[in-house]
Amino acid sequence: MLVRPWTDAHGGSGCCSGDPHDSGVCLDDRVGGRHGHSHETEVVAETYRLLRAELEGVDVQIVGAGNTAYLLPTTFRRVRRRSGVLTALREATRSTTAGAVLVDGERIGDIEALGPRGVLDAVRARVDVAGQR
Fold first, then answer.
1. DSSP character for 84?
2. CA separation for the pair 4, 98 (Å, rounded)
3. Are 20 and 12 in contact (CB under 8 A)?
4. pLDDT per residue over 23-59, tens digit each?
5. Burial track 97-116 (b if 16+ CB lie within 10 A, e otherwise)
6. CA–CA separation, 37 vs 41, rounded Å?
7. Which residues have C-beta within 8 Å of that of residue 6, sequence separation ≥ 6?
8. What is the tens place of the pLDDT at every residue in 55-67?
9. Rounded-to-integer distance, Cα 43 and Cα 115, Å
10. Taking the CA atoms of the chain, what radius of gyration do you get in angstroms?
11. Interhelix angle for 39-54 vs 111-126, to 10°?
């Protein structure tokens, strides 16, 4: 799961939930032409398209940083099992940071720090594309 920047929340555009073969995901190409976006948004879009292209069978999703009703409890529950309450609280809070990369509810890095190829490598290290963990 990729957490998109706050600044890219376009009500009703659906730009971040488009068809995986649509090269305009997160770029609003389908809404009457390309609009300018921040660098962070461009990196999220590039990372999303790379993951979808390279990791067939892996469910890649984009969620808004403001979706705390999903991000906080999902991350907290996953991390608490492995590392305890304090670490789970810290990681749950970090999961709402724009650019966070989550795999099965656990934060594995940041898109800006890792870059698209780094995210791909980090996700591959955590997920067996054939569905085995």
1. -
2. 5
3. no
4. 444 544 444 445 555 677 788 889 999 999 999 888 9
5. ebbbbbbebbbbbbbeebeb
6. 6
7. 64, 65, 66, 98
8. 988 899 888 888 8
9. 7
10. 15
11. 20
